[in-house]
Design a protein that fits this description.
InterPro entries: Ser/Thr_deHydtase_PyrdxlP-BS, Thr_synth_N, Thr_synth_N_sf, Thr_synthase-like, Threonine_Synthase, TrpB-like_PALP, TrpB-like_PALP_sf
CATH topology of one domain: Rossmann fold
GO molecular function: threonine synthase activity
CATH class of one domain: Alpha Beta
Helix content: 40-55%
Enzyme class: lyase
EC number: 4.2.3.1
Distance between the termini: 46 Å
Strand order of the largest sheet: 3-4-14-9-10-13
Protein name: Threonine synthase
Strand content: 15-25%
Number of strands: 15
């Protein structure tokens, strides 16, 4: 299988070359030339597999045999060795219609670990086997940065620079990134919001001369391997939910999503043949995705700081991948739509296209008040503590689940990462020891203006071995 760009101007690439490219050289996002169809017999076989074996089966459909099976198994085993639950992503039942898929058992207590611990091992493998220079550049709204840093810190042949919005992530998220003092890690705290950080990243990756000279590699979900790794837990969640609730139930999935990457992984799983009933997007007050699903208009709005900062995003970078399939894989139409977005700040789909969107996706933007109310309600009624992002998912479950259906709602982070919100409810939670110990550690980061030229200067110094995080 080869990979192509959503905008159609990149020659087909193999799997490893696609991962190394990250953002398509034409500004588009890389997708497989075809999505593998999984038969009912294969689904029946897969449903009994543990997470790691399921990962290998799904990954192998896309990797073109570029990674020998023995090597792939070693990468998967190393990636999930640090997870605190042997299931990797265990499913918890809260009531007869609501199940929680816990995605926070990795080293940084967030769902990004599922993909990024593998990605760190994968980049290390490519560096060693192909002699590639790996200089990772990424932006984070909080969780990606910590997970990516944890995945590659101290690894030979790899350097990583992460941009995060200054004072717009939770304190735990900030500490998880900035208490790392390995020489191959640089944290840049940008005086702006996540969209500013993401814009700078995409501009740097679009500068093909700079990208090539400095061997830039992507860690954000513009990189297809992130999408693919996340697809695994959709299959795993569906199988475990069907096992617990019974095969007769229709199974929905509710996904907290800001950058459209996590929900697109579910869209991919469904196109492969996983019979998910409803794919539900849960957002917060930065609700560009809800507005698109309900009205057909995709237009960034006013940035809002919320209790769920990892979803404080107005420009969803993976939206283009969904648009590609919505437009029946017509790259010329995708390019035209993205050109309109760049020039006019909005795009609109109408008529049959909008009806198709609404048949494929449902969406809800939860308010801060709803989040706090649901956290308190489920703590009181079930004893289970939701983090604010997970609460968005539960709000969407309450809005869209119907008789004869169950919903698997994704718990995308441990509540200890967002204690600022939890404390507003006078709930005192016990911190995991790994998080409790962060507060005493020294921080290392460089605070900079929202300026591409300054980011470029910092990167050039870092890759040359001259830059260090400032304490």
């Amino acid at each position: 299988m080869n990979y192509i760009s959503t905008r159609g101007q990149v020659a087909p690439k193999g799997f490893i070359d696609t991962v190394l490219m990250g953002l398509g050289e034409d500004g588009g996002l890389m997708v497989p030339e075809r999505i593998p169809a999984v038969s009912s017999d294969t689904l029946e076989w897969w449903k009994g597999l543990p997470f790691r074996e399921l990962f290998i089966e799904i990954f192998s459909l896309y990797a073109n045999d570029e990674i020998p099976q023995g090597d792939l198994k070693e990468l998967v085993d190393a990636s999930y060795a640090t997870f605190r639950d042997p299931e990797v992503t265990p499913l918890r039942k809260l009531d007869d219609s609501l199940y929680i898929l816990e995605l926070f058992h990795g080293p940084t207590f967030a769902f990004k670990d599922v993909a990024l611990q593998f990605m760190g091992e994968f980049y290390s493998y490519v560096s060693k086997t192909r002699g590639e220079i790996i200089h990772i550049l990424g932006a984070t709204s909080g969780d990606t940065g910590a997970a990516a840093i944890q995945g590659v810190r101290g690894k030979e042949g790899i350097k990583i620079c992460i941009l995060h919005p200054h004072e717009k992530v939770s304190k735990v998220q900030e500490l998880q990134m900035t208490t790392v003092h390995d020489e191959n890690v640089l944290n840049l705290s940008v005086k702006g919001n996540f969209d500013d950080c993401q814009r700078i990243i995409k501009e740097l990756f679009s500068d093909l001369e700079f990208k090539g000279e400095h061997h830039l590699r992507a860690i954000n979900s513009i990189n297809f391997v992130r999408i693919l790794a996340q697809t695994v837990y959709y299959f795993y969640a569906y199988f475990r939910a069907a096992e617990q609730a019974g095969e007769s139930k229709k199974i929905n999935v509710s996904v907290p999503s800001g950058n459209f990457g996590n929900i697109f992984s579910g869209f991919l799983a469904k196109k492969m043949g996983l019979p998910i009933h409803k794919l539900i997007i849960a957002t917060n007050e930065n609700n560009i995705l809800e507005r698109f699903v309900k009205t057909g208009e995709y237009r960034p709005g006013e940035f809002r700081k919320t209790h769920s900062p990892s979803m404080d995003i107005q420009v969803a970078s993976n939206f283009e991948r969904y648009l590609y399939y919505l437009l029946d894989e017509d790259s010329a139409k995708v390019s035209a739509y993205m050109g309109t977005l760049a020039s006019e700040g909005r795009i609109v789909v109408e008529g049959d296209l909008l009806r198709r969107v609404q048949s494929e996706l449902q969406a809800l933007g939860a308010t801060n008040e709803q989040n706090l109310e649901l956290i308190g309600k489920y703590r009181s009624e079930t004893g289970y503590l939701l983090d604010p992002h997970t609460a968005c998912g539960v709000a969407a479950y309450e809005a869209f689940n119907e008789d004869g259906e169950i919903t698997v709602s994704f718990a995308t982070a441990h509540p200890a990462k967002f204690d600022e919100a939890i404390r507003l409810l006078d709930i005192v939670q016990e911190f995991p020891v790994e998080i409790a110990e962060l507060i005493a550690k020294e921080q290392y980061q460089t605070v900079i203006e929202n300026d591409k030229a300054e980011v470029t200067r910092q990167l050039e110094a870092f890759f040359a071995g001259d830059a260090v995080n400032k304490a």
